[in-house]
Design brief:
The complex is a heterodimer of chains A (649) and B (151).
Chain A lengths: L1 H26 L11 H24 L6 H6 L6 H6 L5 H22 L5 H25 L23 H29 L5 H32 L10 H26 L3 H24 L12 H29 L10 H31 L4 E2 L2 H21 L14 H21 L5 H18 L12 H26 L1 E7 L4 E4 L2 E12 L3 E12 L5 E3 L2 E6 L2 E6 L1 E5 L2 E10 L5 E9 L2 H43 L1
Antiparallel strand pairs in A: 2-11, 3-4, 4-5, 5-6, 5-7, 7-8, 9-10, 10-11
Chain B lengths: L6 H30 L1 E4 L1 H6 L8 E7 L5 E2 L5 E7 L4 E7 L11 E9 L2 E8 L16 H11 L1
Parallel strand pairs in B: 1-2, 5-7
Antiparallel strand pairs in B: 2-4, 2-6, 3-4, 4-5, 6-7
Classes of the chains: A alpha+beta (649), B alpha+beta (151).
Chain lengths: 649, 151
């Protein structure tokens, strides 16, 4: 019964989205403008409906209703409850339903709270949002119905891929999805503003919180995904340039550029066309990412649940939305481009540089990700990996980081470098000293990690400098946000560079009682014991790991065996210190009874994810600060209007 | 850009800068891809035209039955990969993927050094949903078996 209700409610939500689009289009015409007042309530009800449909699916998964095909294919009654619920979106149909649900809720939320936009722009925005949703509703209802029944019901479910039975992965996809779909709001805003030719500071201020929100979730999602891949796949790597990783990185790069250009538009009324363009590009990258992940067109460790026919459907949606938005942009761009001027040395110019470099990086990643597809069309199979991405992306990223040290110190519109020479000298000296120290005391390392370790301390100092000479209590929260985000970037950069420069790996086959040395650690294998979990059994290694003669700590990596579906997974064990992380993996038992073990000592590697969290925290502070100041601005405007009305009386 | 430049001209300069940067990125990407993309070979290809030792390539094929042996260190393995016509010896140091067994398909990433393929990484069937795409159509003769093995 619940499945039928879910499907019916989903159809109703789709119908409401169509109504929302139609009333939006009519509402923009002068003689049927009254209809426009329907758009807001329609968006709210549509959001509520699709949320109910999603909750129905969650209920079906939580109760393991095996008469529903999706549940039977992806769940199992013996799974822990948390993974039953997470199983709702651990598959193709469920994740697509989650996608439209977040979209519907976000649209409803915009309709409820947005008061800064011109009414006609808001109507156009919500109509645009409905237009995008309709495609996804059609996709769900015609190509991948999550509520389809199975007759007769399965006796037991097929289970969830063991690789996905991990708490990190239970919450990682929804986080990324909120980010992707948040960008759909930015897209709709851009389309709405193009339709009504209303691209200006008010539009940018209205769009900015959505971009910030999406960007925070993307940042957290990428950080969490990287950490998940690091500890769960047992390869000790935190970034692989895998197509699915790239699929989340590309929207993040576009959103980062959009965030900065949005600030320029909001406070300086410049970069109008560029900001709108980035709004379109950012969501396009979310769609391209979804297409790459869901179509099965690329090989990836993460690309579960793939189906070429659905890929074609997503590709068609991609073509309609991106093509449509770009055509609209082409028609309207000339009417929105006039903006304020600025000089070569100014905050705006630094942000333009940042935008160009981020877009360049995005281009590099996009080309590298799509290149294997292109060559395969001509019959050559290639794969593109770190040897391409690392150096080529660095060509764009490193200059951007250098400019980032200076940019926040510059004034808007026009400035002189002479004014900030002293401030610029501090990070430059810190970086120079770091380089000197490295040359004198550290073993030689490759160029890229060397540059990273050199730039990071300078960038860390430079990111705090905007606070210098300010009353810290009166410093706007948004400024603190910028400081945190830039500082977090420096922290992450330092972790990345240290890991690639100074990681040590040890691979060995050992008996119980043997000791392995890895970096400053001595690790002794005490015993191998069998253990059992809710739906798996495992062999567990008991290691005593001692750092430079300190008292040993216990580490217990496991080699887990799952029964439904059958599969093996290595569960690594990590020991974190302030200066790095020891990583241990238990392999197989050899024919001679020795156990394969793999260990890494990774100096400062946790700083990568700590940095990511700091960046996201910076985004959150900026969002809170901006929202607070927008509310104040709104109240002040209302008060002035009240006074005027009083005077007129 | 001094304040005397018209907004229209400033916009033009910005557009030109952006275009130059993006075209630069494209050219750089194209150049790097020619050098850095790793090509996929089956044993027949690699025997017919061996890639230079400094080029990273991927080798795909079937692990020949009875060819797998482990060095005394317990972690270095040697095996032979074949495609039904030609074979290539492979050396790998590390923990093998869970589903790496004789008679099954494998894709090895690495370099060809003096006729031996030295693998940095092995991709086997990770689970029932993940199959290295290259393995699905290696050679006509092997296709059915590989697909059957890896599906």
């Amino acid at each position: 019964m619940i499945a039928e209700i879910g499907l019916a409610v989903l159809w109703m939500a789709a119908a409401l989205a169509v109504l929302q689009l139609v009333s939006g289009v009519l509402g923009l015409r002068p003689n049927t403008a009254d209809v426009g007042s329907l758009v807001r309530p329609l968006a709210v009800v549509q959001g509520a409906m699709v949320a109910i449909a999603f909750l129905c699916l969650v209920y079906l998964f939580a109760t393991t209703d095996l008469s529903v095909k999706l549940v039977a294919d992806n769940s199992h009654s013996a799974k822990p409850m948390i993974f039953k619920i997470a199983g709702t979106w651990g598959n193709h149909e469920g994740s697509m339903l989650l996608w439209v649900t977040i979209m519907g809720l976000a649209g409803g939320f915009v309709a409820l709270i947005e008061r800064r936009l011109r009414e006609d722009t808001l109507i156009a925005t919500l109509a645009g949002q409905a237009f995008v949703s309709i495609g996804f509703y059609a996709f769900l209802l015609f190509a991948s119905n999550p509520f389809a029944r199975l007759s007769p019901p399965a006796p037991e479910g097929a289970g969830l891929n063991p690789l996905l039975q991990d708490i990190g992965l239970a919450f990682h996809p929804p986080t990324l999805y909120v980010g992707y779909v948040g960008l759909s709001i930015a897209f709709s805003f851009a389309v709405g503003a193009l339709v009504t030719r209303d691209v200006g500071p008010a539009f940018a201020r209205a769009m900015r919180p959505w971009v910030l929100g999406a960007w925070i979730f993307l940042t957290l999602g990428i950080t969490a995904g990287s950490y998940w891949a690091y500890y769960t796949l047992g390869w000790g790597g935190w970034w692989f340039w895998d197509p699915v990783e790239n699929a989340s990185l590309m929207p993040w790069l576009a959103a980062t550029a959009l965030l900065h250009s949005c600030s320029v538009l909001a406070s300086r009324n410049a970069l109008r066309a560029w900001t709108v363009m980035l709004g379109v590009i950012a969501f396009s990258m979310s769609m391209v990412g979804t297409f790459l992940v869901r179509s099965g067109i690329l090989t990836s460790v993460h690309a579960f649940a793939v189906d070429p026919e659905r890929g074609t459907f997503i590709l068609a949606l991609l073509a309609i939305y991106i093509g449509g938005a770009l055509a609209l942009f082409g028609l309207r761009a000339s009417t929105v481009t006039e903006g304020a001027r600025f000089s070569f040395v100014s905050r705006e110019a630094a942000l333009v540089f940042n935008n160009v470099m981020l877009t360049g990086t995005l281009g590099i990643v996009l080309v590298g990700t799509l290149y294997p597809l292109l060559t395969e069309a001509f019959g050559t199979k290639v794969s593109v990996g770190p040897p391409y991405f690392n150096p080529v992306a660095s060509v764009f990223v490193l200059p951007m980081l250098v400019v980032l040290m200076v940019g926040p110190l510059l004034r808007w519109r026009s400035d002189r470098l002479g004014r900030i020479t002293l401030q610029m000298a501090i990070p430059a000296i810190v970086s120079a000293l770091t380089l000197l120290g490295m040359a004198l005391f550290a073993p030689p390392i490759h160029l890229l990690p060397l540059l990273g370790i050199t730039i990071a301390p300078g960038l860390a100092i430079a990111s705090i400098l905007p606070l210098a000479g300010r009353n810290l209590r009166r410093t706007p929260v948004a400024t603190w946000g910028m400081v945190f985000a830039h500082f977090g970037l420096a922290v992450a950069l330092f972790g990345m560079a240290c890991d690639s420069a100074y990681s040590t790996e040890k691979l060995a086959a050992i008996n119980t009682g043997d000791t392995v040395e890895v970096g400053p650690w001595k690790v002794k294998l005490e015993a191998i014991v069998p253990v059992a979990g809710p739906n798996w059994t495992a062999l567990e290694a008991r290691f005593d790991a001692s750092y430079k003669g300190e008292a040993p700590v216990r580490m217990t990596p496991q080699s887990r065996t799952f029964t439904s579906p059958p599969g093996n997974r290595a569960e690594s064990a990590l020991k974190t210190r302030w200066n790095g992380q020891l990583y241990t993996v238990l392999g197989e038992e050899g024919q001679d009874g020795r156990w394969q073990v793999r260990m890494w000592w990774k100096p400062f590697v946790p700083m990568i994810w700590l940095g990511g969290v700091l960046v996201a925290l910076g985004g959150l502070l900026a969002l809170l600060g901006r929202t607070a100041s927008d509310v104040r601005r709104h109240r002040a405007t209302a008060k002035i209007a009240e006074r005027k009305a009083d005077l007129a009386r | 850009m001094s304040a005397s430049i018209k907004p229209k001209h400033q916009r033009l300069v910005l557009v030109i800068i952006a275009l130059v940067a993006l075209i630069g990125a494209g050219l750089l990407a194209a150049y790097a891809l020619r050098k850095q993309a790793s090509y996929f070979y089956v044993p027949s290809d690699i025997v017919a035209s061996p890639p230079p030792a400094d080029r990273a390539v991927r080798l795909g094929g079937m692990v020949e039955k009875g060819s797998l042996r482990t060095d005394p260190d317990g972690i270095t393995i040697h095996f032979v990969v074949g495609d039904g016509k030609k074979t290539v010896p492979v050396k790998f140091t590390g923990i093998t993927p869970d589903l790496f067994v004789e008679g099954s398909g494998v894709v090895a990433e690495g370099h060809l050094v003096n006729g031996t393929f030295v693998a940095d990484n092995l991709l086997a069937k990770h689970d029932e949903n993940y199959v290295p795409r290259e393995m699905q159509d290696m050679t006509k003769a092997q296709a059915d078996k590989v697909v059957a093995d890896t599906k």
